[in-house]
C-alpha cells in the first residue's frame, strides 16, 4: 500500500465508528452524538452539529459509494480520493 492509500485508510478507520469495515450514515450519527456529549452542547448547537455532519456525509463521503449500497468501503474511499486528488492536480496546475 502506498503512502497516499495508507493515509486514506487511517482516515477511514477514524470514521468507521462501529468498526464494521464500512462507513455508513450511522457512523456520522454516532460521531455527532459523541461530540455533543463531550461538548455538553445545548439543543440548538446539537441540531446544528447534526446538520453539518449530515452535510459532510452526503457531500464528501457518499459520492465515494461506487456500488451504491449506501456504505463506503476502504477501497471505495481510497479510489475516490485518488480521483479527486488527480482532478484537483489537473485543475490547479501552474
Globally, the shape reads elongated
Radius of gyration: 15 Å
Q: How many helices? A: 4
End-to-end separation in angstroms reads 29 Å
How confident overall, as mean pLDDT? 92
Largest sheet: 2 strands, antiparallel
What is the ordering of alpha helices and beta strands? HEHHEH
Beta strand %: under 5%
Q: Helicity range of the residues?
A: 55-70%
Side by side, the strands of the main sheet go 1-2
The low-confidence runs, each spanning 5 or more residues with pLDDT under 50, are none
Q: What is the number of beta strands?
A: 2
Indicate the structural class: mainly alpha
What features would you describe in this structure?
The model has no long low-confidence stretch (mean pLDDT 92). The chain starts with a helix and ends with a helix. It has helices at 3-15, 25-39, 43-61, 74-91; strands at residues 23-24, 71-72. A two-stranded antiparallel sheet has the order 1-2. Helix 1 crosses helix 4 and helix 2 (25-39) packs antiparallel against helix 3. With 94 residues, the protein is mainly α. The chain has 4 helices and 2 strands; from the N terminus they run H-E-H-H-E-H.
Protein traits:
94 residues; mainly alpha; two-stranded antiparallel sheet; 4 helices; 69% helix; 4% strand
Quick summary:
The protein has 94 residues and is mainly alpha-helical. It is built from 4 helices and 2 strands, in the order H-E-H-H-E-H. Helix 1 packs across helix 4 and helix 2 runs antiparallel to helix 3.
